[in-house]
C-alpha cells in the first residue's frame, strides 16, 4: 500500500508541473496577442508599401523606384496576358512588365477619350497611400498602366472573405478598417492637391464599390478616377453627367427638383458639391461591415454620425474629416473593449 501510494505521488508531481507549464504558456500567448493589438497607431492607417519620389513607382517585388513608363517602355516591355475587366470607358488587361504583374487599361471608345484622359490626370495628381500605384501612360496609344491587385474590386469583398485563406480575417476589425479606408479617401479627395473633388461614379452602391480595389492585405485603394469634377467655391457647383439621377442612394440634391410634370433639363438642374459623397457613407459602410460579430455594436456607435450624414440639407452634413474622426474613435473604442475582454480571461 505504501509503495503504491508513494508511486502515485511520484507520478503526480510531473502532471502538476505540466499543467502549470501549459497554463503559463497559454497566458504568455495571450499577452503576446494583446501586445500585437497595441502595436502601431491607435487607428489603422493605409501606408503605401512604396515611398517613391514624384513621377516614380515601385510595385510587386521591386526594390528600387523607377520613373513612370512612357510610350517606348510600354510598347517594348508591357505584354498583355488576358482581359480582366471591361467598361464604357476602358478595357483592363492583366499584363506583365519585366516579371511584374500590372494592369493595362486601354480606351474602349473615342467618345470617352476625355474621361480616359481625366482618369490619367487624376491618377498622376492624386498619387498617395489612398490611390492605386500609377506605373505609366502612353497617350498616343490610348493606354495606361497601374499596379495589379488580384482580388479585384470591393464588390468581391464578401466572396473574398468567404475563401479559406481569408475566412479567419472576416471580423469587425477587418471590415471597420475597410470603412475607415473608404472615408479616409473621401477626406483626402475633398482636400486634395488638385482641389475639392466629387466622386461622380457613385450613383448606386455597386458602382461606388467598383471604384475601389481590394488589396491582398485587405485594404481599399481608389482605382477608377474617370469622373472627379472639381468644386469651385462660389460657383453653381458640379453635376454628375447630363442625365437625370434617381433612387435613394444618391443625395436628395442630385434628384430632379421640379417634379414629374416638368421634363428633365440639364440646364435647369441645380449643381451640388462634395456633400453628396457624405450622404452615401452610411450605405457603403453598411455593406463593408456586413453581419459579423461586433458589427451591430459598431452600427450603434455610428448611429449619430450616420444620421447627420443623412441630413436633407447638405450644409448640415458633417465633412468627411469629421466623419473620419468619429470612425477612428469607434475603432479605438472597439479595440480597447476587445483587449479588456481578453485580459479578463487571464
Automatic annotation (TrEMBL):
It is a single-pass type II membrane protein. Its main location: endoplasmic reticulum. GO terms for molecular function: ATP binding; carbohydrate kinase activity; protein kinase activity. It catalyses: 3-O-[beta-D-GalNAc-(1->3)-beta-D-GlcNAc-(1->4)-alpha-D-Man]-L-Thr-[protein] + ATP = 3-O-[beta-D-GalNAc-(1->3)-beta-D-GlcNAc-(1->4)-(O-6-P-alpha-D-Man)]-Thr-[protein] + ADP + H(+). Its EC number is 2.7.1.183. The chain crosses the membrane at residues 12-34. Keywords: ATP-binding, Endoplasmic reticulum, Kinase, Membrane, Nucleotide-binding, Signal-anchor, Transferase, Transmembrane, Transmembrane helix. It is an enzyme of class 2 (transferase). Residues 78-346 form the Protein kinase domain. It is found in: Endoplasmic reticulum membrane. One of its GO terms (biological process) is protein O-linked glycosylation. One of its GO terms (cellular component) is endoplasmic reticulum membrane. Protein O-mannose kinase that specifically mediates phosphorylation at the 6-position of an O-mannose of the trisaccharide (N-acetylgalactosamine (GalNAc)-beta-1,3-N-acetylglucosamine (GlcNAc)-beta-1,4-mannose) to generate phosphorylated O-mannosyl trisaccharide (N-acetylgalactosamine-beta-1,3-N-acetylglucosamine-beta-1,4-(phosphate-6-)mannose). Phosphorylated O-mannosyl trisaccharide is a carbohydrate structure present in alpha-dystroglycan (DAG1), which is required for binding laminin G-like domain-containing extracellular proteins with high affinity. This is Protein O-mannose kinase. It comes from Chanos chanos. The lineage of its organism: Eukaryota, Metazoa, Chordata, Craniata, Vertebrata. The gene is pomk.
Amino acid at each position: 500500500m505504501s509503495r503504491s501510494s508513494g508511486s502515485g505521488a511520484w507520478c503526480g508531481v510531473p502532471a502538476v508541473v505540466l499543467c502549470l507549464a501549459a497554463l503559463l504558456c497559454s497566458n504568455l500567448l495571450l499577452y503576446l496577442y494583446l501586445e500585437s493589438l497595441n502595436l502601431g497607431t491607435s487607428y489603422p492607417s493605409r501606408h503605401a508599401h512604396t515611398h517613391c519620389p514624384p513621377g516614380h513607382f515601385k510595385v510587386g517585388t521591386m526594390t528600387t523606384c523607377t520613373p513612370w513608363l512612357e510610350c517606348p517602355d510600354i510598347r517594348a516591355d508591357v505584354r498583355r496576358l488576358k482581359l480582366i475587366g471591361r467598361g464604357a470607358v476602358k478595357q483592363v488587361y492583366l499584363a506583365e512588365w519585366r516579371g511584374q504583374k500590372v494592369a493595362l487599361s486601354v480606351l474602349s471608345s473615342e467618345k470617352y477619350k476625355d474621361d480616359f484622359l481625366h482618369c490619367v490626370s487624376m491618377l498622376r495628381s492624386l498619387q498617395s497611400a489612398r490611390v492605386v500605384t500609377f506605373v505609366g501612360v502612353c497617350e498616343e496609344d490610348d493606354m495606361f498602366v497601374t499596379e495589379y491587385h488580384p482580388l479585384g474590386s470591393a464588390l468581391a469583398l464578401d466572396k473574398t472573405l468567404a475563401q479559406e485563406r481569408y475566412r479567419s480575417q472576416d471580423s469587425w476589425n477587418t471590415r471597420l478598417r475597410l470603412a475607415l479606408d473608404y472615408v479616409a479617401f473621401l477626406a483626402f479627395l475633398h482636400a486634395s492637391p488638385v482641389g475639392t473633388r466629387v466622386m461622380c461614379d457613385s450613383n448606386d452602391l455597386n458602382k461606388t464599390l467598383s471604384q475601389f480595389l481590394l488589396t491582398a492585405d485587405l485594404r481599399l485603394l481608389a482605382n477608377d478616377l474617370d469622373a472627379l469634377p472639381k468644386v469651385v467655391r462660389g460657383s453653381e457647383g458640379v453635376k454628375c453627367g447630363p442625365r437625370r439621377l434617381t433612387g435613394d442612394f444618391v443625395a436628395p440634391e442630385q434628384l430632379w427638383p421640379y417634379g414629374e410634370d416638368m421634363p428633365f433639363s440639364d440646364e435647369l438642374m441645380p449643381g451640388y458639391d462634395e456633400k453628396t459623397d457624405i450622404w452615401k457613407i452610411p450605405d457603403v459602410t453598411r455593406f463593408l461591415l456586413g453581419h459579423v460579430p461586433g458589427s451591430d455594436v459598431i452600427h450603434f456607435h455610428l448611429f449619430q454620425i450616420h444620421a447627420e450624414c443623412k441630413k436633407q440639407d447638405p450644409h448640415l452634413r458633417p465633412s468627411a474629416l469629421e466623419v473620419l474622426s468619429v470612425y477612428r474613435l469607434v475603432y479605438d473604442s472597439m479595440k480597447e473593449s476587445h483587449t479588456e475582454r481578453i485580459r479578463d480571461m487571464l
